[in-house]
Every structure is written in structure tokens, then in C-alpha cells.
Design a protein that fits this description.
Elements lengths: L2 E3 L9 E3 L1 H10 L27 E7 L2 E8 L4 E7 L11 E3 L10 E2 L1 E11 L8 E4 L2 E9 L2 E9 L7 E3 L13 E7 L3 E5 L2 E5 L4
Parallel strand pairs: 3-15, 8-13
Antiparallel strand pairs: 1-2, 3-4, 4-5, 5-6, 5-7, 8-9, 8-10, 10-11, 11-12, 14-15
Amino acid sequence: PPLCKDGDIADYNNYFLDTGGVSTYLDWANRDNSRQDLTGMFFSVDPPFTHDTAGRIAIRNSYRAYNYWQYDPSSGRYLRWQETVDLVGDIQPDYAAHIDNLNGQQIATDNLVVLLVRYIHNPQSTGEMYVVDLYNSGQAFIFRDGRAYDARWRRTGFDSLLSLTDAGGSPIPLKPGTVFYQVIGISSTWAVNGGEWSFEFIMP
């Protein structure tokens, strides 16, 4: 089916989506599958001025989920590297290029956006089930062209698109191309050492 779980994988986070199957299903169900309104996104080839550099952005979600993005000046994109081992005991972090199974290429993006949002525990769940609150506004970081920007994200409703601005409310332009969002909780911490950024997800 278009959305399913793989029973051979023990982890509960294993939903798979067949985009072609979803399109077929939406046509069958007579649901709107037209191009979405992208109003609110702002793009420019020219990056805004900033003194902050970002050659590497590391994000640790847990002992078994961590990654980093490395800026590649030759392509002007960030390349993704993914964990290969769980950080248990004295095990040190280890990474491999994160490969897209569809094309055999390393996953890359023109823009990396880190969003800090509220994680709200679902009291009706028996485990680690959280609602990710992508409404209202919060802090964000934009990385493009080897540069870093302190930003604010804003989303006013279910049908509205997320927008990114500076502290004064002026749009911060993304680089034309792909945008990869990484969402972490507002309790998370971050540090900067030269052009290296590190984020650690901390559950509230």
C-alpha cells in the first residue's frame, strides 16, 4: 500500500511511503493533488551578508541517531553523513556517506534549516509518542553557501507554509534548490566552534 510498515524491521520508526502510489490513491479518491501553493518561501541566488560561517553542521538526536552535513565548495551544497554504530559504552561516533537508494548518490541539499519546536508528550500513548508543534513561531538556523543565519520560523495555520525571517521580520532568502529541514526540541542545545556547528536534541 502507499503507506505501510515493514514487519521485518524491529524498530517502530519504519513507515515507508510510495509517492507514486499516493498519487494514484488521491486520484482514485477524487482528492486534490494539484501543485501546492508555495507562498511564503523566499529564494535568492545571492546570499545575505553574514560573518558566521558553517562548514560542518552536526546533529545528535540520540545515541543511535546522529549525523552531520559537510559543506562542499565545489558543488555549493551540503553533503550528509549518517551514523553507523550506536553510541553505547565506550563506542565512538562513526559515520558513512548517506546514500539515496533511488539514485546511488550521496544525499545533498542546497539549504539546511534547523527548526527548534515544542515536543508535546501524548498522554494517551504508552510509549515515546510526541506531538511536534509546528504552529506559531520559534527559533531557527539557516545554512547555505557555507554560511549561517540566525532566524525565526513562523507558521500561522494548518494550510499555511512555514516562513523564515530575521529578528526584525524580514525574509531570509534560501538558495534556489533543495531545502532539508531538521526538527529538534526547544530544550536542545547548540555550540559553535569556528565554522563547526553542533546541535544536541534534548527532550523536554
